[in-house]
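WARN retry 2 of 3 for item q-0093 after timeout on previous attempt; input resubmitted unchanged.
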Amino acid sequence: MSVMFKADSSARSSRKMKEPLRPVGGFEAGREGQESGNLPELVEADTLRERGCGDVPRSFREAFLLHAWEIRLLYRSCRQVFFISALGALFFCALETAFATRPTTRQAGALVAAGRVITDETGRRVTIPAEVRRVVTLAPNLTETIYALGLEDRLAGDTDYCDTPPAARSKPHVGGTVNPSLEAIVALHPDLVLATTSINRIETVDSLARLGIPVYTSDPHTVWGMIDSTARMAELMGAATQGAELAARLKQRLEELHSRLSELPTAHVLFVVWSDPLTTIGQNTFIADALRWAGGESVIASRQNWPQVSLEEVIRLQPDYIVLASGHAETGSSEVEDLRARPMWKELRAVKAEHIVDLGEEISRPSPGLIDAIDRLAHELHPEAFRSKADSPISSPDSHIPTASSNGATKECIQCTH
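OK item q-0093 returned
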């Protein structure tokens, strides 16, 4: 490191000759300045010798003093060179270490392969392991999707309301759908958590993300979107083939229904989410889309997902059919009887004609079982479309998919779904 000195001509003239120059620098620079400050004394001593005050011959003394000055300059220069060399050595050592610890192309590829960055259906970027072996689901429809894909061996846990199929009840539970236990989820060591916008809270997803647990959130708004979402989740779990095959079968069933119903008039439906207060579906929900696939249409055109309506308005609209989504078969029967017994409900033509259909919870779950519910509803709304065929619903390879209406599902489950 070189040391710079501030010394102009005016400063030299005002300073005594023995006063050392002040260096600009740190501790080492100050010490070097003190050494260079001895130079004026040499000049003064040499002047005295010119006056005959020195016993040593000038030539010898001057030669000695110049030699010492040169030694000091040489020492100072060598020290600076050594210091710069040492810094250079340290720099190159650090650079060599950095290159030695930097992963090679093959190692970098291995790091990328260890995890995948994907975008879920809400637009969030999520990093998931390359291999997903343990999954926790936070909604009944997601649990049902896992079983429909044949991946139940990877299901490490689900919620208290996951009861379809019945085998899902034996899985470890992490609590409710709205406020699951984060401690219970962490204890299961999941590689991936599946959530849905229809029932789970964003706060739950954010909390799990802060804990380092990846969460994929589904957000289907149509039946077709639900099928595509199923295929995407299968791909995340390394089961792309199973997902593609299931999606193809489900879409084929929808196409068959469409070919049967496309020429028939649309049935007007009141879908009852909740009877007190009377709550129905909006036109942009996946349930409304399910009604359209079954040849029906909601009599309530609302942009709200779950609007409340008055019974007087329903009586004015006079729907052709009333569709319920109860949990229990016994509960469904009691609800139907309760509607028939209510004074104002008796004024509905659908009640008088006994056009009341209870589809169970499957109609309200965006999962593969939804196609079964659509098929059943199509048979209720348009029986004439199936008279040339068997009276039973369209047979398909997915007929083994269980439905919630036959497994003792609770009323609370349909409530929390919305």
